[in-house]
Design a protein that fits this description.
Order of helices and strands: HHHEEHHHEEEEHEEHHEEHHEEHEHEEH
Oligomer: single chain
Distance between the termini: 65 Å
Number of helices: 14
Shape: elongated
Structural class: alpha+beta
Strand content: 15-25%
Radius of gyration: 32 Å
Largest sheet: 7 strands, mixed
Length: about 500
């Protein structure tokens, strides 16, 4: 038998090597072969499964960054894919053996890993070599930390609920949570409780508290399933201990380190805020602020003027407030619900020189009334469809914004909710609504959806552009409106 055939048989028997009936399985696989062949297969298996004490150093052999890992008592330098392969192979071979070492340092294996990386990035806009590469910006991310966070890479041992042990790295540490980098070989479920031992910090910090395992709950898993060689676990600490907090404080033991750490947060916050303000000035939707059921403030930009002007009647009075009746707001604003979203259909009708507004929200009508509304409104140039979303302001935003708004208007006023009016359809696509069957209902049925002519309140329009200012709001009030508007992106 040739050497390649012997290696193939040995590869098939690796999973059964530690089984009690290994000899029986070996005889079945090599049935009909000579005794010398069986001996060669067994010798090859013994060689592959022998414990290995050689270190792996891929620095300079792969194009990606390598990190140092303490695995099975040895220090290895591996990149992300080799790190993932190490865990996969040790599970297959039952530990760090000669077979694992050969596969990880084999030139063909390294070449295949490089091909995987190139194929994964080929044609990808996120390829570092792509001329279209761009750094993603998370809108609504406002970095206001109540506790110190430390970005440090230190090795940890993680025990999963099923008893498996994973070697990973800590990426971000704080007293209440942590972010860990782990191999993608294992399955990580949201909500599962993991036990983490900070091996490297225990050696360097000399704090007894950090040597004990700490339990965390997995709140998020970042990384594509079955594709990413490594994944990131976002966790919340469950064990009552101040060990991590002591380590963070010790590493930030000097004033210069604390200042540098705080400045990094300020730079991140300023950069994100800059992009958010730029985005808001070019936003097409209309942000709204309410006091209970009453519309008080609308934020105007260069691109949402059409929505604002749409709601002006023939007297040039703003009728947007009539869109939010008490009955409609009761559907959108409910106790205990942080946010609500619905579709709103509108059109206008000219009668005796008056411009009458009609609007209908999905839950406000039955099937036949909706069909009639679509058929009547869909034939008009004033037909519009909006998505209306309303969110409850947080307690801090409510107090801050209300304080500045009260100073602006000269009396006590409380802003409680934030809304977004986004146009999703106009008269160009109105014919799509005419495909439904027209019901046998009189047109007067739609009178219940007509807005009243007497508008009790006029919303204040605050513009972000100096050349289009309708009002002159206090700068601090406008800043806090923007801050609340930005934080709403997270809730969406």
């Amino acid at each position: 038998m040739q050497q390649t055939e012997i290696l193939s048989i040995a590869e098939r028997l690796i999973s059964a090597y530690h089984a009690e009936d290994f000899d029986q399985v070996l005889n079945q696989v090599t049935e009909g072969e000579s005794a010398s062949t069986k001996l060669l297969v067994k010798m090859e298996l013994n060689r592959l499964m022998a414990p290995c004490y050689k270190r792996i150093d891929l620095r300079g052999r792969v194009s990606t960054n390598c990190h140092e890992y303490q695995l099975d008592g040895l220090a290895h330098w591996l990149d992300d894919r080799a790190f993932n392969s190490y865990h996969k192979l040790t599970r297959k071979y039952g530990g760090y053996t000669e077979g694992v070492w050969e596969l990880l340092v084999d030139k063909k294996t390294l070449s295949n890993l490089g091909d995987e990386q190139r194929n994964a990035n080929s044609g990808d806009l996120t390829d570092p070599q792509s001329p279209y590469a761009a750094t993603p910006i998370n809108l609504g991310y406002d970095l206001k930390r109540k506790e110190c966070r430390l970005k440090v890479e230190s090795q940890v041992s993680i025990t999963l609920e099923n008893g498996e042990t994973v070697i990973g790295l800590s990426v971000d540490l704080s007293s209440s949570g942590a972010k860990f980098k782990v191999p993608g070989t294992f399955d990580y479920d949201l909500g599962q409780v993991i036990s983490v031992t900070f091996d490297e910090l225990a050696e360097t910090s000399q704090l007894k508290e950090i040597t004990k395992p700490i339990e965390y709950r997995v709140l998020g898993v970042d990384g594509l399933h079955g594709i990413s060689p490594v994944k990131y676990l976002r966790t919340l600490r469950l064990t009552r201990t101040n060990a991590v907090e002591l380590v963070v404080d010790k590493m930030l033991n000097t004033e210069s380190k604390k200042v540098r750490h705080d400045n990094q947060d300020r730079i991140t916050r300023a950069r994100t805020r800059g992009f958010e303000h730029t985005y808001l000035k070019h936003a097409c939707n209309l942000p709204l602020f309410f006091s209970g059921n009453d519309l008080k403030v609308a934020l105007l930009t260069e691109n949402n003027q059409d929505i604002w002007r749409y709601w002006h009647d023939e007297r040039n009075q703003q009728s947007l407030a009539s869109l939010f009746s008490n009955q409609r707001m009761d559907l959108l604003v409910k106790a205990g619900i942080k946010g609500c979203s619905n579709v709103l259909y509108t059109f206008t009708h000219e009668h005796n020189g008056m411009k009458l507004f009609y609007s209908m929200m999905m839950p406000e009508a039955d099937r036949q009334e909706r069909q009639l509304f679509w058929h009547v409104g869909g034939r008009r140039a004033s037909w519009r469809a909006f998505r209306l979303s309303v969110f409850e302001l947080s307690t801090d935003d409510m107090l801050t914004i209300s304080k500045h708004y009260s100073e602006l208007v000269g009396h006590d006023e409380k802003l409680t909710h934030f809304g977004i009016l986004q146009e999703i359809s106009d008269d160009k696509s109105a014919s799509d609504y005419l495909f439904t069957e027209k019901p046998r209902l009189p047109a007067s049925t739609l009178n219940q959806f007509r807005h009243p002519r007497n508008v009790k309140t006029q919303p204040r329009g605050c513009t972000l552009m100096p050349n289009l200012v309708e009002e002159s709001p206090d700068i601090s009030f406008l800043h806090h409106l923007l801050s609340a508007r930005e934080r709403m992106f997270e809730s969406r």
